């Protein structure tokens, strides 16, 4: 029988009375955390050193903070609009301030990308682990409390939905039941959130499955939103190549971010405007007319059978494909669901759309345990039949010429994010006869104003070792590397590298004896340049098909202009000399008094100091340079 509380503090006291003063708390990833319950336990431990609290979780969410004066001016109103009522967990605040009590430990297996690179406490307590192994690690730690955000609705009396986060909870529940039968004190706590979409299927549980329930008006809060980022031409080029690898009737997994948004858009473009899709694919470096593209079949037809999605994350990108009718193939004859997913996080529009689903469509999405979607274990033969022609699409930061992928950490060991489920899907792709692991990598990036290659000869860290290499995709094409010789892998990877860095990469490979002295880059890979991509996507007749925000955005039109301008300005002021040149050009350009809405949005309409006048001039200059 559940006990319902209207006070998080009273519920925390009941938890301590039930399980004792040594608490191992499991919190779901992302938006599923029962924040007020976790805060109350944290407060009790902070005030009483006899309480030992270990928190194990992933992807703790906090509003973004700007690094520069311009970023802070831009983010301030946006944060107030989107996150004013978001309750940042108390343990996250303590970590940011380096004030975690000695009797409290926080361990995360996935970090907000780049958020904790400079935080030694978080770096030391990070746990590198595959998503599919998190439940087992929690059990090894002796987890005795789960605190989960849940949904309810009048149509389902006596039932709760795990909604966004059944992933680890469903895997833990049977083991916690065993522990309870063995006499161990454990507790399962729920916090009701009225804005959480109610999902059916595996995510739906009897309300009495929870020992404690927090149902309080003052503990309601909006779900954390992730605004979609703008999609650049290079992102679209990568996505076009990926979309040409996905067969009709197959299975899809795709993540989150601008590359994934671009993949979803290009799949819809292929379905709705196949002539345009094929025209662009013909034009792209490494595209349909390239001899290098012959390594894998080209898929360019409409999705008549549709796709089945088996994915750890239900993102805006995947849901857009569901709404567009591309994700429509049922798992099998006994399972009408077209999506199996472990958790969801995304935009406010995603949450609203999920909440507004018809009952029939709601039943076509099965939010389920992570062990189901990230592994083949358990009912393996059925999973193999369901996941036919699977394309597991993920993103990596760096790839080496020999096929290693670097997705979670830097050479010095600092963690950027985490392994998450990437290796789970890479491994699964190798275990399914007709599947592919597709790792998207941006061929180049700007660092301190200097262009650098993301395709390297070597790197002193690996997320996916080279013996698990498969398909790499950059803006310049596809490298099919599975089963290839070292010479073949290197040749394929050079073919998708930026031309500016190909000579250096070839030199490394030749010194290692992996390429012959007379090796030359394939002729059709010599034009792998950003200008080549811009010349395609800047064509007037193609521009309407490739919008900056293909899946929509939380940003106003003025904010969208500012994002483009501020990103341009960041590249133009990377390094002292670049800053001087850009500032001088801005001052010479003069204050034309244009872009008043954008200037006002930055709070610079009435500059009161030299610093503010300079910022105003820089912003106006950047807006002029990025005006479309």
What does this molecule look like?
- The structure is a single chain.
- The chain is α/β, with parallel strands linked by helices and 628 residues long.
- It folds into three domains: 3-219, Glutaconate Coenzyme A-transferase, CATH 3.40.1080.10; 233-534, Acetyl-CoA hydrolase/transferase C-terminal domain (Glutaconate Coenzyme A-transferase, 3-Layer(aba) Sandwich); 557-626, no CATH class.
- It is 37% helix and 15% strand.
- It has 23 helices and 22 strands.
- The strands form five sheets. An eight-stranded mixed β-sheet has the order 13-12-11-10-14-17-21-22, sandwiched between helices. It has a seven-stranded parallel β-sheet with strand order 1-9-7-5-2-3-4, covered by helices on one side. Strands 16-15-20 form a three-stranded mixed β-sheet, with no helix packed on it.
- Helix 9 (258-272) runs parallel beside helix 11 and helix 20 (557-572) packs across helix 23 (610-626).
- The radius of gyration is 25 Å and the shape is globular.
């Amino acid at each position: 029988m559940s006990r319902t509380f209207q006070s998080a503090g009273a519920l925390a006291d009941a938890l301590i009375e039930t399980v004792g003063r040594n608490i191992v708390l499991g919190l779901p990833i992302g938006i599923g955390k029962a924040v007020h319950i976790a805060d109350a336990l944290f407060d009790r431990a902070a005030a009483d050193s006899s309480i030992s609290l270990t928190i194990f979780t992933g992807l703790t969410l906090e509003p973004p903070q700007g690094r520069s004066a311009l970023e802070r001016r831009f983010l301030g109103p946006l944060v107030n609009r989107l996150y004013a009522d978001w309750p940042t967990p108390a343990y996250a605040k303590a970590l940011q301030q380096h004030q975690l009590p000695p009797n409290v430990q926080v361990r995360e297996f996935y970090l907000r990308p780049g958020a904790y690179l400079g935080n030694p406490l978080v770096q030391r307590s990070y746990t590198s682990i595959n998503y599919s192994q998190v439940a087992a690690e929690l059990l090894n730690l002796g987890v005795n409390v789960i605190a989960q955000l849940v949904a309810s609705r009048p149509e389902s009396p006596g039932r709760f939905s795990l909604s966004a986060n059944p992933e680890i909870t469903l895997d833990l529940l049977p083991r916690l039941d065993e522990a309870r039968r063995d006499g161990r004190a454990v507790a399962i706590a729920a916090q009701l959130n009225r804005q959480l979409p109610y999902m059916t299927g595996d995510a739906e549980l009897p309300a009495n499955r929870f020992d404690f329930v927090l149902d309080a008006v003052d503990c309601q809060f909006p779900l954390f939103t992730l605004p979609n980022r703008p999609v650049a031409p290079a992102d679209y080029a990568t996505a076009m190549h990926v979309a040409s690898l996905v067969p009709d009737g197959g299975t899809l997994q795709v993540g989150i971010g601008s590359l994934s948004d671009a993949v979803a858009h290009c799949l819809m473009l292929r379905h709705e405007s196949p002539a345009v899709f094929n025209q662009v694919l013909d034009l792209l470096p490494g595209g349909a007319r390239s001899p290098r593209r012959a390594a894998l079949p080209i898929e360019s037809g409409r999705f008549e059978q549709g796709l089945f999605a088996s994915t750890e994350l239900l993102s805006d990108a995947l849901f857009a494909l569901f709404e567009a009718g591309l994700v429509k193939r049922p798992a099998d004859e006994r399972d009408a669901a077209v999506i199996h997913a472990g958790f969801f996080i995304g935009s406010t529009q995603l949450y609203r759309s999920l909440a507004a689903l018809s009952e029939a469509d709601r039943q076509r999405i099965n939010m389920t345990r992570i062990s189901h979607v990230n592994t083949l274990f358990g009912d393996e033969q059925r999973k193999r039949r369901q996941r036919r022609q699977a394309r597991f699409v993920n993103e990596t930061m760096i790839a080496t010429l020999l096929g290693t992928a670097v997705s979670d950490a830097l050479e010095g060991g600092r963690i950027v994010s985490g392994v998450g489920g990437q290796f789970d899907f890479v491994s699964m792709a190798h275990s399914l006869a007709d599947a592919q692991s597709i790792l998207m990598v941006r061929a180049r990036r700007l660092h301190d104003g200097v262009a650098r290659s993301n395709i390297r000869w070597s790197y002193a860290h690996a997320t996916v070792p080279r013996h698990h290499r498969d398909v790499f995709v950059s803006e310049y094409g596809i490298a099919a590397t599975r089963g290839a010789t070292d010479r073949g892998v290197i040749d394929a990877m050079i073919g998708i590298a930026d031309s500016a860095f190909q000579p250096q990469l070839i030199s490394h490979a030749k010194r290692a004896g992996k390429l012959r002295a007379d090796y030359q880059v394939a002729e059709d890979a010599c034009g792998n340049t950003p200008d080549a991509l811009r010349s395609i996507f800047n064509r007037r007749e193609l521009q309407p098909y490739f919008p900056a925000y293909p899946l929509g955005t939380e940003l106003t039109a003025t904010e969208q202009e500012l994002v483009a301008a501020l990103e341009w300005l960041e590249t133009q002021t990377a390094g002292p000399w670049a800053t001087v040149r850009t500032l001088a050009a801005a001052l010479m350009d003069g204050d034309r008094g244009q872009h008043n809405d954008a200037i006002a949005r930055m709070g610079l309409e009435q500059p009161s100091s030299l610093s503010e006048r300079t910022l105003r001039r820089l912003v106006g200059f950047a807006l002029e340079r990025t005006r479309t």
